[in-house]
Write a structure and sequence with these properties.
It contains three helices and 27 strands. With 351 residues, the chain is of the alpha/beta class. The strands form three sheets. The chain has a 15-stranded mixed β-sheet that branches. A ten-stranded mixed β-sheet has the order 6-8-10-12-15-18-20-22-24-25, with no helix packed on it. The protein is elongated.
Amino acid sequence: MRKVSIDEIEAGMVIAADIFDPEFGGELPLIARGVTLTPTYVGKIKDRGFFELLIETPPDYRGAPGETYVLLEVGEDIVSAGNVDLQCDIPPGIKIAAEENIRVTGIVHPGCSIISAKGDIFITGAIHGSPESRVTISAGNRVEIDNGTGRPVSFADIKALDEIVAQSDMHHCSLSAKGKLTVTGKIGKSNIYSHKKIRLRECGDAAGVDPCQLLVKPAECRQLFQALLALDKQMEALQQEKKRLHNSISLVRNLCKNIESLPPDKKMQLALEVKKFQEIESNIASGLKTKEKLKENILNVLAAERIIVDRTAHPNTQITIENYSLCLDQSVGAVAFYVQDMKVKSMPLRC
């Protein structure tokens, strides 16, 4: 079935779910499931002030951009060019792929794959992978998980090109986000990676047997490092040209002690090379200042709070920011981690 707006309904469509009449307290169906719409029915629906409804689709229907493909049960792989709304559990091994948003209200079983090319993924329910059949979730934008079952998300690989927000405990998972990554539950035996910032409630365990690896590689650092690398290449080329000009100028001066005796064209060439030499020296000096500024900017980026643990980070938790790491040898509570003096350091959370 698919969800359509009231402006899109037309005669000939088949109703996929009972439409209840608000004039009778929403208990009496105005039009029952399976009824084919007639012009009279279309008029009644519009007069009652409905905004959207569900209509039946052919068995091979896979949606269109902007449309929402709604399923109350699923027994095979689903591929859609629009949105997908799964109001059911997803059986083991099923693949769900959509160009736009995917919403799941139910349990995601082992081996399932949920992939949104350009949109968000919203999951309300449990995610239960296994060591042999992990669950894969990948979004072109955000991933949001609200697991109200009390059981942790387990054996899942979750990726997002924007942020990840998970309201759940998580065990044996891998999370990767280009934006912020937030988990309000407890994490154990998992790898957490972000290009921006990580915020967790608790990670690992008191005995240190279920450690987590927390890694932030700030996107701003990557841009600054790329700029620094490009500048180093420019500086190397300038130094080589400076050396060549220095040798050329020295050679002419050694051969001709009296510069005034040089032919006019040679004097002009020497003057141009001296001028270019001076310009390169000025460019090198300017480049060195820019390099120091880039390094300062990198230090400022690293000094920001990049990993935050609201409650407790337990022993053997590996904290890495850019290329600097710290392995906790004891539990620490309510802390933020950052880099200073080329080392990962921590500070108490500010209230």
